[in-house]
Amino acid sequence: MEVLHSVVVNSPVGPLFLAASGKGLVALEFDRRLPGQQTIRPNPRDLRSERQSGKVAFRFEESEEALRAYVHELDEYFAGRRRKFTFALDLRGTEFQLDCWRALPAIPYGETRSYADIARAVGRPQGFRAVGMANNRNPVAIVVPCHRVIASDGSLCGYGGGLEIKRKLLELEGALSAALVA
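The structure assignment produced for this chain is given below.
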């Protein structure tokens, strides 16, 4: 069973759950998620059956010290002093998901791209819906900036933390056009 260090921290967009392996950040989740939103955290109601069937893959150990560098960069980001994260990530997903998630940090701070733009960037020009599903499964919110992906018509759509948090993150980065702010 793999041990992940974890911590819950407060932020301007609400509590954030962080988990890291020895290789890097595995998860950054909003404490409050939309119904059906994927999470790395086990549902306490399911733990007994998961343990009996051997499905539990992680054990979490709370450690502010182990997550200090991640929290520090997040604090700088929310204070407007960081535009790019420098710590290692330990992303886990399908090859397509990984391709999509690796394309997202290439979106410059303060800018947005459409789902179609990301689909073209990963070599699947007709796969904008699949890109949307990959974004929905992004385990490392904010750092892997799926909040910078918007609809082709420029509207905000779909975000695991909810559209209000997506709007707040884009406002922080100065990425909202006058049309979206109105």
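Interim note for the steering committee: DSSP finds seven helices and six strands in the chain. Strands lie at 2-9, 16-20, 25-30, 58-62, 113-114, 149-150.
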